[in-house]
Amino acid sequence: MHKNKPKQSKASRPNISQYTVKEPTELLLFLLHKQAKLGRNSVKAILARGQVSVNDKVVKEYNYPLQPGQTVIIRKDRVVEEAPLIGLTILHEDEDIIVIQKNAGLLSIASAQETEMTAYRQLMSHVRAKDPGSRVFVVHRLDRDTSGIMMFAKSEKVQQLLQNDWQDAVKERTYVALVEGKVKKPEGTISSWLRESSTLKMYSSQRPNDGQHAVTHYKTIQSSSSFTLLEVQLETGRKNQIRVHMEDIGHPIVGDKKYGSKSKALNRLGLHARVLAFVHPSTGQPMRFETEIPKAFLALIR
Question: What are the φ/ψ torsions at residue 28 (nearest 5 degrees)?
Answer without folding.
Answer: -60, -45
